[in-house]
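[recover] target loaded
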């Protein structure tokens, strides 16, 4: 799952560690794609999040949409570059 941090996201300025705590261990952060296109594989828990960043998560599909909905983040799922709806 890929979660895009949009302008309404409460996670702007937060860290990867903040996301992992809110997720209560139901997923792991695999990568972070910065708005400028830089990709960080296995980002540190201390890595800060900014507008336009995308967090790439892996976990149980049933748990992740609940997390996204709770934090009012835009959910975008991709499979080999194609959007899934």
């Amino acid at each position: 799952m890929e979660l895009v941090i949009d302008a309404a996201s409460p996670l702007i300025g937060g860290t990867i560690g903040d996301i992992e705590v809110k997720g209560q261990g139901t997923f792991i952060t695999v990568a972070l794609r910065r708005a400028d296109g830089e990709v960080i594989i296995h980002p540190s828990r201390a890595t800060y999040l900014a507008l336009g960043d995308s967090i790439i998560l892996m976990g149980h599909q049933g748990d992740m949409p609940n997390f996204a909905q709770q934090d009012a983040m835009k959910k975008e799922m991709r499979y080999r570059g194609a959007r899934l709806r």
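[recover] notes: The first helix runs from residue 16 to 23.
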